[in-house]
Design goal:
Layout (H helix, E strand, L loop, with lengths): L12 E4 L3 H13 L4 E3 L3 H10 L3 E5 L8 H9 L9 E5 L6 H9 L3 E5 L4 H63 L3 H26 L1 H5 L8 E4 H18 L3 E6 L5 E4 L1 H17 L6 E9 L2 E8 L33 H11 L3 E5 L7 E8 L13 H4 L7 E5 L3 H13 L3 E5 L2 H10 L4 E5 L7 H10 L7 E6 L4 H9 L4 E4 L4 H9 L3
Parallel strand pairs: 1-2, 1-3, 3-4, 4-5, 7-9, 13-14, 13-15, 15-16, 16-17
Antiparallel strand pairs: 6-8, 9-10, 10-12, 11-12
Amino acid sequence: MTEGSAPSHELRVLLRMVTAKDAAMTTQLLARSDIEAESCADAAMLASEMARGAGAVLIAEEVLSDQGFGRVMLALRAQAPWSDIPVIVVARSGLESLVISEAVEQLANLTVLERPMRVSSLVSAVRTALAARRRQYQLRATLEGLREADQRKTEFLATLAHELRNPLAPLRTALSILSEKQPPPETAKPLYAMMDRQVTHMVRLIDDLMEVSRITRGKVELQLAPVALDRVLRDAAEVSKPLLASARHELVMDLSTAPCAVQGDAVRLTQVFANLINNAAKFTPAQGRIVVSMRPHGDTVCVQVADSGIGIPADMLDSVFDMFVQMSDTSRHAQGGLGIGLTLVRSLVELHGGTVTAASPGREGGATITVALPLQASRAPQPEEPSIRAVEQVARGQRILVVDDNRDAADSLAELLRLMGGSASVAYGGEEALSALAACPPTVAFVDIGMPLIDGYALAARIRADPATAGVVLVALTGWGQSTDRERIMAAGFDHHIIKPADLQQLSDVFKTVS
């Protein structure tokens, strides 16, 4: 069935004639024109069949006076907003009849044919009614499509909010430790590394928000690379630490000593297993036990997340991965949740060519979620992220101006550029930037686009128009990352376009192009 079409029973013509002979003859006449018709024995049957579906209703004038015709009128009034079943009345005396006049007043989509009539007139009237009914079904399909699109968008936004909270928890914990205890550099280094991973995770999620239309159509693009699954599982456990700690759960990581590498998106796989650990924690009473195990099996690797929680009823095992499914009587056990975590897990696992299944002995028996992913033959080396030490001299000798009305963003970037060897100053708006440029033109300027009064585009135009500053390397630093944004930025005279927040590799690449 194509979009906008309807099942055959929704395009049939329902008949209610005065006699069985009239009904049979009318049915035969319509059949010769390839129109399906079905006779109803009385008005009650007509109302019942209308509820199942009809393309049009064809009745004799006498039926309007039947005692049971009130049920037909009720069925017509109870139609969905998109629906208005065409009604054709075969009348004895046209519109002069009192009962016909009353029907015209009560029924908006009414056609009256006067007897005796030509067969061609009847067939034409029925075909016109069915054509109008088909347009109604097309409208129904359009409305359903709009509802589904709105639902997908709502599901995506709910998923985004759900996922953003996961990396925020370890970030807040690390910031509290750094601000309260002020640990020495060696102790703080793992915290900084963890914060960097979580920020990267959040950046990827926000990038997805910028592509909301693509994601709501189910077109998520994975950034595939060889991934060490044990590292992914440890990162997922790190994301889930605050929730595990608050419930005083014991987390056991039983990972295979054999290398287990998959071709996948590390951030998305971290989402998968953090969701599974969080889900286990939410549905496990305090001081429970959660075991994450990983074992290779032939050409696949199986990861199991098993908990000692409330379990899953047998009739729910196949549906727990459906959107918004919640087991009854579980709200008192779960710490929040929108019923979307396992749906996200299934979608992402299937995008990686894997499968996910649930098993449980039943209530209070705990649950085990198993993810199977294709296993690579060997473990590929993981590229290392650049460090400050590795790029600390890349900006040496450069005079740098950072222009951003967000003071924290401007100050932190300037400090990072100083660590990279540059001489960095800050301007907190366009006017201040023009004064700084006139006093001492920089070699490189990092310019925010969305500033008040003088935005990044206007500032770039004035910099390029002044011979004293025309040669400055301009870098647009912005949150806008669509292809149209990039085209406008480059057309405005910028040399580089970096989406916030900038990482060390992007900054290093800029300075490598500066002579």
